[in-house]
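Notes from hallway chat w/ T.B., transcribed later so I don't forget. T.B. wanted the structure written out for a chain they're using in a teaching module, and asked if we could keep both sequence and structure tokens in one place. Agreed to drop them here.
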Amino acid sequence: MQITSNTTGMQAGLCVATDKDGRDYCVVVVKGTFSVDKDGTTRLAEEQEPLVYADVHYGDPAKTSIKYECDFARFKPMADIIVNGHAYSPTGTPVTEMMVGLEVGSLKKVIRVVGDRHWEKRVIGLAPSEPASFVQMPLVFERAFGGSDHSHKDPKHHGSETRNLVGVGFHKNSDTKSIEGKPLPNLGHPQQPMKRWSDTPPPTGFGALARNWQPRVKHAGTYDEKWLNERFPFLPEDFSDRYFQAPPPDQQLPFPKGGETVRCINMTPDTVFTFTVPKADVPVSFRFKDRDVVAEPNLDTVIVEPDSRRVLVGWRATVPVGRKLAALREILVGAQPRNGPQALGKPFPVARGIE
């Protein structure tokens, strides 16, 4: 079982994945890196980003958010729309507050970006300081509400914001001395600003949620004694493929067909970064011992990177392989010449054991 031909000019790889009932599937992922011209048109970039086999974080995996998630998932019920980038002052001069936006079809999302602040002691308690000015701000979950608080002597007063474990602004200890001088989030919902230290606004960002954060982790299913006795080593009955969706729920859309307009507002120095989702013919042919199966992959991943004026697009095709993996002889990616497939002269990557 291998990819013997890839005519797309993009990266292609495969894995064997198992569903919650123990059935094996062959998953083929095609990933293209596209440059965005000034007029918004996209073209296949000369340098193609490699497939990602393990999550890539912005820094220490225990302390930072995910920049690129593993490309190999069995199936995504919807498309992920992700942005890796920065907020830029629309005037190019320092500001203390601004809005950034993402628009893709029915998706219209706005985030309020505020300069650095901290909690100050006032006569009536603690209040946010005046925000510092900025020209550029990273749009990462480290700058959104979240984090953990273990400052109290008694562990029962420790806690974490399970929606964003790497964020800032979460406090469980009510002792104001432990809060004074601590930072507030830079990113937030426009209608839900943080006014009191005890507020718990929704963590807000455009990037990928970690697999152990809510609301994503709830789709992983229930791992209890019943599961251990009746299902192990298979996934729980209540496991949902939505677990494989990386961004916040409001950035999960029906599969694009290509040609959809994407607009990022105030994420580049020239204010608006816009392009159309690339259209590409990416058929995948699975040649079994006794049959051929041709699949039209779902376009299920769009990663927008305005700073680099590029977009990473992923297509995914999944077919059941049965008990005999060797029955799948070869896989052809892209339109094939009439005189037969032409191998590219090098092996294509295989990831095994992905669930």
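Follow-up for T.B.: Helices lie at 176-179, 225-230. Might be a good example for the class.
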